[in-house]
Amino acid sequence: MHVTIENQVAMGDVMPVADKVRELMRAGLDRHDAIHAVGTVFTEFLWESMHGDLNGVEATNTWYEERVRALTAQKWLDEYGDVDG
Question: Are residues 59 and 11 in contact, defined by beta-carbon separation less than 8 angstroms?
Answer without folding.
Answer: no
